[in-house]
Amino acid sequence: MKTDKKSKKRREELILEGLGVAPGVAIGPAHVREAGDLQVPEYQIPAGRVKAEKVRLGEAIDKALRQVGKLKAKALGIHGLAAEELGYLLEAHGQMLNSSRLVGGIERRIDSDRRNAEAAVMAEISAIAQEFEAMEDSYLSARAEDVREVGHRILRCLTDEAYHGFGGLEKGSIVIAEEISPADTALMDPRQIGGFACVLGGAEGHTAIMARSLGMPAVVGVPDLLPTVRSGDQLIIDGTNGLIIVNPTARRLAGYERRLKDIAREARSLARLRDVPAETRDGQRVTLQVNMELPRELEQTVETGAEGVGLLRTEFMYMNRADLPGEEEQYQALAQIVKAMRGRPVTVRTLDVGGEKLASSLGEHLGEAANPALGLRAIRLSLKEPKLLRPQLAAMLRAGAHGPLRILLPMITTPGEIRAVRKELDKTARRLSRRGVAIADPLPPVGAMIEVPGAALAADSLAQSADFFAIGTNDLTMYTLAIDRGEEQVAHLFNPLHPAVLRLIQFTVEAALRARIPVSVCGEIAGDPRFTALLVGLGVRELSMTAKAIPRVKSRILSIDMHAAGRRAMMIMEQVDSGRIAALLDDFNEMAN
Ligand code: PEP
Ligand code: MG
Predict the structure, then answer these.
(1) 224 lines ligand 1 (CB under 6 A)
(2) Helix (H, G, I), strand (E, B), or coil: what is residue 18?
(3) DSSP string covering 259-311, please?
(4) I want to staple 270 with a disulfide (CB 3.0 to 4.6 A). Which of 21, 137, 469, 551 is the partner?
(5) Whole-angstrom Cα distance, residue 126 to residue 148?
């Protein structure tokens, strides 16, 4: 919000707290992402489409209202004047979204001008804003900004797209916004952007995962961020402790500059482990692989000495675009990664959208679900829409001709789903071979993500159909504890050390060992050294994590005594209280230091 009050704000140091989701420190100028400069499609619609367009507008307004409600709940957590100001503002935004002149005006423009909803919103906000701006009263003229903000919120809900690039920002800028989507994060270049902070978001959401992958400090769930920070403010973002320091004192700045040096020194010392095998003190080898979100992480992956890609999230190919990637484009992207890994396996996961991971190019396939996390997502979507699955499988088969490639299926719940994919894979392989196209020979192994409690409990049955398992502890924790991984209000309850989650991991690992199929853990805990001894103690021998996490996890493995870790894991598995589990684990980790 831009108000007169804000511009008169004191310039002294302010510390804001949130959830630190990607560790590290950055110091740089704030770039507050304004809702302006939206790129939206504008076109005429036929008379027969008017009703559907108004329904689309209605859905976007409902979504915008839900967002405002969520922000209001967050504002309750702030103290003092900022809370009051924010409360009034959000109340006003809510009212504007509820059949106001704005909404009525947009509907009329769809009706009479036959404009698409986005164009109607743009035209209406500019008409109303002009009226306000022409008013003599400075308070009223400032309300034009509120109308624009509400209009832009509707537009974002209509397009569901990343609406801003981050090119052209001052080097080292720290991006400040209400919400940052995974697609937004994909547009951020860590050489250009120091880090980001936003009001919404949880620690295990994909935005947070991508920030960790890019090695970009990030803090989410900061309620009083937008009323406090303005573009150009000097900021320190401390992603390790979840702090945003606005206009820091010289003393604080010096302290953080020392921290930056320490971090760089530690990174240099860990880099020396690059060619050291990940082996426990008593000689147990553990395979460390990389989770990759974007091809630009390839160089770093190769540099860390990773033993393969344990999880390639293919969603990047569908982000920030309106159309779908074809077979050739997918093949080129995958082949580049397989070739760069020079014989080390690349585990490519089929498209995993739905739930919090919405891709704008898939809108028509996903539709509106009452409960998207339980709806048509991941493998369910791929099996329903062969036009999504076939090009993916074909690209994987072709890329597999250049090196070892494994196919991983997300959100599996039944063996039938794995069989259905295998059938499609066989058909695709025959079609490509008939055309004389080179493909993987033999066909790539097909594995299942174990990330739904039911799949973990039926792991012995799934092991009959799958060639390998990858345990996705992010979704497994979410579905087991009924905690939305991207929701900041329940983020404190997201706990992979809950005995229920650990039992499901143990059950899956034992089923895989009995069936003699490989099993890895590729959820975020795989990259957190706090969990390493426990996972290894439970029998896990493959871990897949962001490239940045490999040196620390390797360093932890080098200090572990396998037998002691096994005994501690068994002790932990006898516990029913997650607090006691955490204490037993932390105590074991302390002993290594
Ligand atoms: C998981 O759910 O743990 C996982 C690795 O997959 P994603 O985070 O992509 O859902
Ligand atoms: Mg998952």
Answers:
(1) no
(2) coil
(3) HHHHHHHHHHHHHTTTTS--B-TT--B-EEEEEESSGGGHHHHHHTT-SSEEE
(4) 551
(5) 8
Question: What is the rounded CA–CA span in Å between residue 308 and residue 403?
Answer: 11
Do 411 and 448 touch, CB atoms closer than 8 A? no
74 lines ligand 1 (CB under 6 A): no
Q: What pLDDT was estimated at residue 4?
A: 39
* Ligand 1 atom with minimal separation from the 291 CA: 5
Q: Show the tokens assigned to 104.
A: 């009525």
| Mean pLDDT score, 288-300 | 91
The predicted model scores a pTM of 0.76
Percent of the chain with pLDDT over 90: 59
Residue 522 annotated among the catalytic residues of the structure: yes
> Which residue is closest in CA terms to ligand 1's atom 10?
475
Between CA 472 and CA 475 the distance in angstroms is 6
Cα(523) to centroid of ligand 1, in Å?
Answer: 5
Euclidean distance between CA atoms 8 and 84, whole angstroms: 17
Single out the residue of 330, 471, 327 nearest to residue 408, CA to CA: 471
pLDDT tens readout for residues 197-232: 998 887 777 888 889 888 899 999 998 898 899 999
Q: Output the pLDDT for position 162.
A: 40
Dihedral angle sign, alpha carbons of residues 294, 298, 304, 310? positive
What is the predicted pLDDT for the residue at 160? 60
Q: What residues contact 461, with CB distance under 8 A and at least 6 apart?
A: 415
CA of 440 to the centre of ligand 2 (A): 26
Distance 478 CA to ligand 2 centre (A): 9
Instruction: Compute the average pLDDT of residues 238-267.
Output: 95
pLDDT at residue 88 greater than cutoff 80: no
**CA 109 – CA 154 distance, rounded (Å):** 15
Distance 26 CA to ligand 2 centre (A): 29
Coil/strand/helix, residue 357: strand
Reported as a single tens digit per residue, the pLDDT across 350-407 is 999 865 555 445 655 565 667 778 888 899 999 999 999 999 999 999 999 999 999 9
Q: Residue 143 above 70 pLDDT?
A: yes
Q: Which of 31, 93, 206, 365 is catalytic?
A: 206
How long, in residues, is the chain?
Answer: 593
Per the listing, tokens 């624009």 go with 148
Report whether residue 205 contacts ligand 1, using a CB cutoff of 6 Å.
no
